[in-house]
C-alpha cells in the first residue's frame, strides 16, 4: 500500500486523501451523529408523553378515590344543609318505606334513629341517601337480629355534618 501511495503524484494523493476524509466524515455522520440525534429527539418526545401520562394518572387517581368512596362527582362537601335533621331523617325513612322508625332529636345536629324491624339493605339505602343528599352521616349503629327472616333491629345515631 505504501509503495502504491508513493507512486502517485501529489495531486492524486490529495484527491485520494480528500475522498477518504469525505468517506470517513459520511460514515461518522451515518453511524455516529445521526443515530444520537434521532435518539435525542425520541427521548425528548418521550418526556412530553411521560408528562401527559403523569397528568392523566393524577386525574385517574382522583377519579379512582372518588369511585372507591362511592360518592358522586358533583357532591359538594362545602354546601350547608338547613333544616331540622330529625324531620329530614323521618321524611327520608318514610320515603324509603320504613314504617316503624322512631326519630328522636339528641342535640343540635344529631338524631337517634330506632327501627324495630327493617331489611338491612333498606336501612343501608336510607343511610346512603342521607349522606349523599343531606350530609347526614351514621355516627353509631347497633344492628341486632330479630325473629322475622331477613329482618334486623337498628339503633343508630346520625349527625348532620356542616
Detailed description of the structure:
This protein is an alpha+beta fold. It has four helices and four strands; from the N terminus they run αααββαββ. Strands 1-2-4-3 form a four-stranded antiparallel β-sheet, covered by helices on one side. A hairpin with a 4-residue loop joins strand 1 (101-105) and strand 2.
Please report the distance between the alpha carbons of the first and last residues: 95 Å
Structural class: alpha+beta
Spatial strand order of the main sheet = 1-2-4-3
As a percent range, the share of helical residues equals 55-70%
What's the main sheet like?
4 strands, antiparallel
Shape: rod-shaped
- Please indicate the percent range of residues in DSSP E strands (runs of 2 or more): 15-25%
| Number of beta strands | 4
Number of helices: 4
Along the chain, the helix and strand elements come as HHHEEHEE
Mean of residue pLDDT values: 86
Radius of gyration, CA atoms, in whole angstroms: 39 Å
Low-confidence stretches: none
Report a brief summary of the structure.
This protein has 162 residues and is α+β, with helices and mostly antiparallel strands. The protein contains 4 helices and 4 strands. Strands 1-2-4-3 form a 4-stranded antiparallel sheet, covered by helices on one side.
Amino acid at each position: 500500500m505504501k509503495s502504491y501511495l508513493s507512486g502517485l503524484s501529489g495531486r492524486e494523493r490529495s484527491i485520494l486523501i480528500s475522498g477518504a476524509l469525505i468517506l470517513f466524515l459520511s460514515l461518522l455522520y451515518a453511524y455516529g451523529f445521526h443515530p444520537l440525534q434521532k435518539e435525542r429527539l425520541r427521548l425528548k418526545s418521550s418526556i412530553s408523553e411521560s408528562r401527559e401520562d403523569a397528568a392523566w394518572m393524577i386525574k385517574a387517581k382522583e377519579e379512582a378515590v372518588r369511585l372507591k368512596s362511592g360518592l358522586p362527582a358533583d357532591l359538594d362537601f362545602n354546601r350547608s344543609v338547613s333544616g331540622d335533621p330529625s324531620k329530614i331523617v323521618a321524611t327520608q325513612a318514610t320515603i324509603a318505606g320504613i314504617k316503624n322508625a322512631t326519630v328522636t332529636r339528641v342535640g343540635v345536629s344529631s338524631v337517634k334513629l330506632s327501627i324495630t324491624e327493617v331489611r338491612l339493605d333498606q336501612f343501608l339505602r336510607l343511610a346512603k341517601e342521607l349522606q349523599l343528599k343531606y350530609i347526614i352521616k351514621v355516627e353509631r349503629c347497633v344492628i341486632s337480629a330479630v325473629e322475622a327472616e331477613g329482618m334486623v333491629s337498628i339503633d343508630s345515631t346520625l349527625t348532620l355534618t356542616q
